[in-house]
Amino acid sequence: MNLGLAFDPLVSLPLLIAAGAVAGVVALLLIFARTRGAWLRSLALALAVLALANPSLTREEREPLPTVVAVVVDKSTSQQFGDRTQMTEAARAELEKRLDKLKEQGAEIRFIDAGAGAGEVDGTRLFTALSAGLADVPPERVAGAIFLTDGRVHDIPATMAALGFHAPVHAIISGHEGERDRRVALTSTPRFGIVGQRQTIGYRVEDEGAPAGARVPVTVRRDGAVVARPVVTAGQPAEIDVEITHAGANIVEIEAAGLDGELTPVNNRAAVSIDGVRDKLRVLLVSGEPNVGERTWRNLLKSDANVDLVHFTILRPPEKQDGTPINELSLIAFPTRELFQQKIKDFDLIIFDRYAQTGVLPMIYFDNIVRYVEEGGALLVAAGADYTSEGSVFNTPLESILPAGPTGHLTEEPFRAKLTSAGERHPVTRALPGSQNDPPSWARFFRVIDSRGVRGTSVMDGPNKEPILLLDRIGQGRVALLLSDQFWLWARGFEGGGPYIDLLRRLSHWLMKEPELEEERLSMVARGPDIVVERQTMGDSVPPVVITTPTGATRTLDLTAAEPGLFRATFPADTLGLWRAANGDLTALVNVGPLNPREFAEVTSTTQTLRAPLAETGGGVWRMADLPGGVPRVVAVRSSDRFAGEDWLGLSMREVSVVRGLGLFRLFAGLSGLLILMAGIAAAWAREGR
C-alpha cells in the first residue's frame, strides 16, 4: 500500500496563485511589523489558501507484475544440420531449469519457436518472432531475451533501438567451430529465353573452411536431365550455356560434387527457373481446294497470337489449262521448292486439308516431308473424300508415316463421334466438353472415311468403331489423321455445335510437343501450403512416386485416380526449396518459396553475425559446445549496466506494478475542513487576546 497527497483546486489555478500571493504578502507584512500572533495569523492564511487547493490523502493498492524473459528457439531448416537440433534441445532443457529460479522472484518465462515450416518467410527471422512474442508486454516489463540459434539470422535490425525495449539480448550458438561446407552461388540468372536458343548462367562454387582453388566436378541438369558436366575451380566465377527446350518454366540445376567432411550437401545445388518463350509457331496449311471447313482451320490458327500461319489454297492445278496468258493471271504461284525443300524445317507443323495429289507437289517433296517428320516435325492430314481418290496422299511416300489407309469407301449416315477408351485417357481428348454424356452432347457428323491398316492410337471413333481421329509417333516426330471432314459443323453451331476449338487446339499443340499434352507426364505444382503431384498415363495404374525433399530426404507417395488417365496426390510442403518427384523415367520439379533459400546459402554456424548487434543491448554471445550444460549461468541483475560475462548472462529484473485500488480522503471537505480552519483561526485569536 502506498500513501500520497493529491490536489484538486476549488478555483482556477490563476485565482489560486493570486490568493496565495496575497496571503504571502499579508503574512510578510505581519511578520516584519512584529504584530502579536503574526506566525499564527500566517498559518491561518496558509490554511485558507490550502483549503482552496482542496488537498486529499491518497492510498494506492498495487499488485506487482512479473518481469518477462523471452527465449527464442530457432527451428529453421539450418538447425537440422549436424547435431544442432540435439544441442539446441539439450540447451533449452538446461536453460529452462536455470530460469526456474527467476520464477521464484516473480519472473515470467516465455519460450518462442521461430522459423518452423515452409510457410515462413525466406530466411531465419528471430527478431520478428521476438517482437511478435512480446507484443502484449510493456517495454518496462521486459528483462531480456535469449536466442538459441546457429547464428545465421536474416532480420537483424539496423539499430537495436528498433526492438522497442531496453534490456539485454543474448545468443547461445549451436554447432561447432571450424565447420566445413561447399555451396553453389548463382551470379547471373536470366529470367526469360527464346525456345530453341541458349541462355548463359553465371555461378561460383565456394568452399568454406577448406582451402580455395580446388577443382570441382559440376553436373548441370535441365528439368532433371543431365546436359553438361564441367569441372570448375572453387572460388572462381564460371558460366554455362543451356538450351531452352520448351515453353514455360525450364528449371536448371547446377550441382557441385561433395566436399569431404562438409556439414551438408543440400546447398551443393542451386537452381534457376528460366521461362521459355516461343518466338512463333510456324504452321504451313495447304488446302487442296476451297471447302466449307477451310475457314475453320484458318480462323482457329489465326486466332492464336503465337502462331505464324502460312496458308495456300490450290485454285489452279496444273491440268487446268484455259489459255489465259501468264502475265494476266492474278494467282500467286505455289512456291513448292521454297516451302518443301529449302524451308521445310522452319515449320513446326504442316497441315494438308483435303489435299489430293494433282501434280502440284513432286513425289520427291513428299519424301522431304517424311524425313521432316522422322527428324522431329509434325504432320496433320484432315481428310475428306479426296482420301479415297486415286490422288490420295496415302498413294505417296506419306504412306509410310500415315496411321491408316483408305478402303476406298465412305460411311455416310448421321452419328455422334465418341471417345474411345484410349481417348478418355489421352490428354488431347480427355474431359473434352460434352464427352461425359452418353451420347455426347455435341452435333452429329454425317460422313467418315473407312480405313484399314490402323496403327497408332484411336482417340475418337464413329459408326462400326471406324476411327475418326488417329494419333501416332514416327521417329522423333508426330502424325495425326482426321478421317471425317465434318468438324466444321461444330464450328457453325449446327445442333448446338461442339468443342471444336478445344479439340483442334489441343491436337495442334500435341503435334508441336507441348509438355502439358504428353501422354506420359509427371508434374508437380505448389498450391497454397500443399504440393500437388499429377501423373498422366495411358495405362490403368501407376507405381508410387518417389519424393525428394530440399534437404535430400526421400519418401514414397501413392497416387489415386482422379479421372481416366490422370492420377493425383497432395502432401504438405513443409520445407522451403526445390522438391523433386520421380516415377520411372519421368521426373518433375517444383520450388516452394525462393529457388535458392537463404537458409541454405550459408549453413556454417557463427558467433560473429550477432556479436556486434547484441553488444549494443549489453548482451553476450556464447557457443553451446564451450559451456558446461550448453548454457551460461543465469544471473538476476537489478542495479548494474553489465549483463554478460565469460560464463554468465544477466537479465535486468524490473519492479513493475499495477494499481488495483485507490482510496481518497479530502482534508478540507466537510467537518474535517471546518475543524482545521477553525483551529487555525482560534489559535491566532487566542494568541492576540493575551
From TrEMBL:
Superkingdom in the source lineage: Bacteria
Protein name stated in the entry: Glutamine amidotransferase domain-containing protein
Keywords: Membrane, Transmembrane, Transmembrane helix
Transmembrane segments: 12-32, 39-57, 664-686
Signal peptide: none
InterPro entries tied to this protein: Class_I_gatase-like
